[in-house]
Amino acid sequence: MIAYALRRIALIIPTLFAIMVVNFVIVQAAPGGPVEQMISRLKGSDVSATERVSGGTGEFKAQAGASDTRYRGARGLDPALIKELEKQYGFDKPPLERFLLMMRNYITFDFGTSFFRDRRVVDLIKEKLPVSISIGLWTTLITYLVSIPLGIRKAVRDGSRFDVWTSAVIIVGYAVPSFLFAVLLIVLFAGGSYFSIFPLRGLVSDNWASFSWPMRIADYFWHIALPITALVISGFATLTMLTKNCFLEEINKQYVLTARSKGLTERRVLYGHIFRNAMLLVVAGFPAALIGIL
Asked: pTM for the whole thing?
């Protein structure tokens, strides 16, 4: 068992390396990028953009014949300015060197500066992480609390009208993206078109610190109600059907027939014998769900 665990852990390193290589190649081959974005801002006479590469003067030199470039929209820009942009974003180095620098920075948890926000990536992550963890934890918890009992109920009543109409609801929830549910919920309950019950933005109110603790908790749940609802509606379908199929597979096994022949009640058979075995596959996906929160 220990040897197997060590082998699995050892496989993480080449797997991560392969993922990094593929990710680097895709990003390098994809059109666009920070240089082209900066060029488009320069062409639009964005003063803040030109100050970053022209020493604060807010001006850039154009040449009508400077069309020999691989960047879209660079016609008329000074080639020296384009080279300065490439140097600023590290594209003046060969791909292999850029990849090695990227790996070194990732190993030391140095994610650099965002090309599009002009802020350290670590600071951006710290800023958004509390919201992601908060919404993700509640979404995961509610999804499991809804999906497991519903899946068990569907397995016990397989083929009934309850199973049919809940399957229809699950299919609709699975087929419609969560962002569409989010837009619908905003229009209905937060946009002012129909009902203005929930806030449009924010994790808590601006004057949250002045509330009492019960009011703080209520205000917090008031703000996260709509996003969590949208995520749960589109996220519980897979887990529900997985739970149902796992229970259906266990219900027809020999040990269940043996337990029933001993005179045990259906509830005792379901939760005392079937539940433990059927939940193994369901619980196995819980670590991945926690990682997905981030």
From this structure: 0.70
